[in-house]
Amino acid sequence: MDGSKGADGTPRDGNDEMGSNSVEAAGRNGQDAIGPEVFDALRRVSTATITTQLFARGLRNAFMAGLRPLNPAFTRMVGEAFTLRNIPAREDLDVLSVFKDYDHPQRLAVESVGPGQVLVMDCRGQTRAASIGGILATRLLRRGAAGLVTDGAVRDSPFFAQLELPSFAAGVCATTNLARHHAVDLQVPIGCAEVPVYPGDVIVADAEGVVCVPRHLAVEVARDALEQERLEEFIQAEVEGGAPLRGTYPPDENTLRRYRSR
Ligand SMILES: O=C([O-])CC(=O)C(=O)O
Ligand SMILES: [Mg+2]
Description:
Elements lengths: L19 H7 L9 H9 L2 H10 L11 E2 L7 E12 L16 H6 L6 E6 L7 E3 L1 H9 L4 E4 L2 E2 L2 H4 L6 E3 L1 E2 L8 E6 L3 E3 L2 E3 L4 E5 L2 E5 L4 H23 L12 H8 L2
Parallel strand pairs: 2-3, 3-5, 4-6, 5-7, 6-8
Antiparallel strand pairs: 1-7, 2-9, 2-12, 10-11, 12-13
Helix pairs in contact: 2-7, 3-7
The structure holds oxaloacetate ion and magnesium ion.
The site of oxaloacetate ion has 10 residues, from strand 4 and helix 5.
Protein name: Putative 4-hydroxy-4-methyl-2-oxoglutarate aldolase
Subunit structure: Homotrimer.
EC number: 4.1.1.112, 4.1.3.17
C-alpha cells in the first residue's frame, strides 16, 4: 500500500501517536506477533471505522449484524478469537448426563480460553436454546477472557446484564444448550452471524456490536483506523460548525490542508 495514504484513500498525517513503525514491527512475525499497542489502538476506534477499513481492503462481511451487548456498561472488547463450533443437537446424544464429562467440548472450551481471548461460538444463528449461561461466563471472566460472542442465545440474561464481561448474543433463551446445540470442535474456522471467524482473528466490539478483523490485517487496520478517526473528528467539528458536505465530507484539498495545519 502507498505509504502516504490510508486504506480509504485519505492521507495519513505524520504524527501517528500509535507509532506506525512499532506497530508494523510488532506484526512481522506472524501468528504470535500482534503487539499490545495494536490491541490498544483497536480498543480506541469504533467498529464502524474498522468496517470501513476492511471494506477498503475488499472485505464487506466482517460485522456480526444482529448481535447485541448483554451488559451495556461493558461493550468495549478486543481480543483474539477462541472458537467453538456447534452442530444441531440430536435427542439421543444430547442429554443432561453428558455434562458428567468435564471434558465435554462446551466445558473444555470455557476451560481453554486464555487470558485476553474472546470465546466466539458458532450456533448457526439458532436462538431457541442458550449457548452458554451465567456460571460458565463467570468462569470465563475468572480465567481472564476478554469476552464472549455467540450468534445463538444466552440463558441467565439478568445475570449477564450485571456481569463485568463484554458479552454479545443474538438473543436470550432460558432453554439449556443441549436442546439445540451439540458442541463439537474447538479452535476451528467457524461462522458467527454469517461472518467467517478463524482462530486468532482479532475480535473488536463496542456498543454497536462485534467485528472480526482477519489476523493478518490487524496491524494495518489498527493504524489506519486511528488516522481515519482523527480526520473524522476534524470533519465532525467542521460539520457541527456549519460546513456543508461539499468539500468537507469527503475532504477536498482545502479541507485537508486545514486539517494538516491544525
Ligand atoms: O446450561 C448452560 O447453558 C449453563 C448454565 O446455565 C450456566 O453456565 O450457568
Ligand atoms: Mg445457569
